[in-house]
């Protein structure tokens, strides 16, 4: 007697694939959930990296501004510059007096 040959080609995969899917539905849903979490985590991490980069640029700009204001303040607080400003306003600088407590 000859054995019956059944076609196990691509035509039967649809039925077998659907049966396997329904048998393992919880596992497929779990894998789908993990995929969604993985994608969401990647988007979250990329957003954080962009935020960090923008904050680093802002810190760099603020540091430049701080350094320029600091150098300008140091220049303006020199005794010669203070004398110039005081003379323009009609003030005279006196020598400090020594106070002795008994």
Overview of this protein structure:
This protein has 102 residues and is mostly helical. It has one domain (17-88). It is 75% helix and 0% strand. It contains 3 helices and no strands. The longest helix is centred in the middle third of the chain and has 52 residues, at 25-76. It is rod-shaped, with a radius of gyration of 40 Å. The mean pLDDT is 87.
Overall form:
rod-shaped
Helicity level: over 70%
Main beta sheet: none
Strand and helix order: HHH
Number of helices: 3
Q: Could you name the ranges where pLDDT drops below 50 across 5 or more consecutive residues?
A: none
Layout of secondary structure:
Elements: H1 10-23, H2 25-76, H3 79-88
Quick structural overview:
With 102 residues, the protein is mainly alpha-helical. The protein is built from three helices and no strands.
For the structure shown, list the relevant keywords:
single chain, 102 residues, mainly alpha, 75% helix, rod-shaped
């Amino acid at each position: 007697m000859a054995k019956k040959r059944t076609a196990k080609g691509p035509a039967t995969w649809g039925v077998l694939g659907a049966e396997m899917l329904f048998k393992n539905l919880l596992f497929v849903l779990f894998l789908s959930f993990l995929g969604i979490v993985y994608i969401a985590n990647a988007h979250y991490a990329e957003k954080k990296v962009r935020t960090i980069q923008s904050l680093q640029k802002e810190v760099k700009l603020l540091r430049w501004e701080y350094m320029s204001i600091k150098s300008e303040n140091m220049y303006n607080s020199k005794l010669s510059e203070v004398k110039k400003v005081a003379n323009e306003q009609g003030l005279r600088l006196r020598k400090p007096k020594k106070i002795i407590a008994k």
